[in-house]
Amino acid sequence: MTIYAQEATLGRERLEHCLIETNHRMKNSLQMIAAMLDIQTDEDARTLSAEGVARLHDYLRTMGALHDLLTQNARERKDPDRLSARDLLDRLVPLMRNLAAGRSIRYQARDVITTPRRGMALAVIAQELISNALKHGRGGVQVTLNRMGETALLEVCSDGPGFPPDFTTRKASRTGLELIEQLTRWDLRGVIRYENRPMTGACVVIEFPTDIEN
Fold first, then answer.
1. Dihedral of alpha carbons 159, 163, 164, 165, sign
2. Are the C-beta atoms of 85 and 109 separated by less than 8 Å?
């Protein structure tokens, strides 16, 4: 086989792989959108409120940022099965700042390598937690992504009244916590904690393994 024929074969193989990955990711995106619609309509008594429509719009923007990152990775011929969570936050946080009405969103992140599927879940979780912090908290929002050995920690904190003593996710309707709980448990294989800060405010911590096995 000539060099040109080998390059053509490799080109076709890369194209086929790209098409398969694109189809897979689009199916995952559509499944997630369908799940979001189910949750929103369940919360709003089988109707979708203006707030619910706005939330879905934010989800679509978040997914758009994720797919832009995946497209960039494909152009740079990076491993299609690996995704930088820090790169994802680099794209997500500026989008959220545009909706923050002048309130600050600060973040710092150590890099965590994950899969596109988990990256999508992590992006939606971060977007939802930041939105809740802006809506229910006061002052700025602090987003932190750390890594401790084989475990990653996403923390979203804000000032404000904090969680009440009798707080449960069942009582916190219309806050997207059901979606956050599902994505954390099933997509990230992680756990979620709701904590009050020592002085004032609340902090939500998502803890999940850093291994990239599906």
1. negative
2. yes
